[in-house]
Amino acid sequence: MLDRDGFRPNVGIVLLNQKNQVFWGKRIRTHSWQFPQGGIDRGETPEQAMIRELHEEVGLQREHVRIVARTRDWLRYEVPDRYIRRDARGHYKGQKQIWFLLQLVGHDWDLNLRATEHPEFDAWRWNDYWVPLEAVVEFKRGVYEMALTELARYLPRQEQRLRFMRQDRSDTDADLTQGPSLDSLER
C-alpha cells in the first residue's frame, strides 16, 4: 500500500526501559541495528499497526507498554534504488513513518524475538537514548534523528540521586539541589 507520492505508511517504535534506555535490535543475519518498525496494513490505524509490530518484532503485548508520545506528522525517508526490488522501481520511493515512544511496564524477560515464525531480529540490547546513528543504515539516519529529537521532550523524568541523599541528611546540612546562599558568597 503506497501513497500517491510512492511512500509506504509505516510505524517506528522507540521502546524505553525504566532507565530511559532504548531497545536496539540487530537485524537478522546482518550487522545493522535499528528500532522496531513495520508497515501499516490497509484498514489499520498507526496505533493498531504499532501494537501488531511490537508483538511481531519483539514479542510484547499491549499490556507490557505505556504509550508516552508519538510524532506529530509523518517522517519520510527515501530508499536508494539499490535497495528497491526491480519490480517496485519507478513507483516506490521509500517510507513515511509515525514514531511512537513507549515505556516498558513489563520486564526484560517479556521480550521474545521468536514470537512469530519470521523474526526480524536475532539479538537485542538496551542502549542510551541517543543511539549511535552510524550503526543505522545511512538512508534512515535522518529520520532517526528527527524522531529522537521530537520525542526527547516526552522522556519520563528520572529521579535524581541527590534528592534521595538529601532526605537522609540533617536539617542543618546544605540543600544539595540549590546553589550557594548569599551568606556563603559574602564570606
Short description:
The protein is of the alpha+beta class and 187 residues long. The protein has helices at residues 46-58, 141-152, 161-167, 182-186; strands at residues 7-16, 22-27, 33-34, 37-39, 65-70, 75-78, 94-104, 121-127. It has four helices and eight strands.
Please give the share of residues in helix: 10-25%
* Coarse shape: globular
Instruction: Tell me the number of helical segments per DSSP (H or I, 4 or more residues long).
Output: 4
**Structural class based on helices, strands and sheet pairing:** alpha+beta
Radius of gyration using CA atoms only: 21 Å
Q: How would you sum up the major sheet?
A: 5 strands, mixed
Features:
about 190 residues; 8 strands; Nucleoside Triphosphate Pyrophosphohydrolase; five-stranded mixed sheet; single chain
Characterise the protein shown here.
This protein has 187 residues and is an alpha+beta fold. The protein has a single domain (7-167), classed as Nucleoside Triphosphate Pyrophosphohydrolase, CATH 3.90.79.10. Helices cover 20% and strands 26% of the residues. It contains four helices and eight strands, in the order ββββαββββααα. The chain has helices spanning 46-58, 141-152, 161-167, 182-186, and strands at 7-16, 22-27, 33-34, 37-39, 65-70, 75-78, 94-104, 121-127. Strands 1, 4, 5, 6 and 7 form a five-stranded mixed sheet that branches. Strands 3-2-8 form a three-stranded antiparallel sheet, with no helix packed on it. Strand 2 (22-27) and strand 3 form a beta hairpin. The model is unreliable at 160-187 (pLDDT under 50).
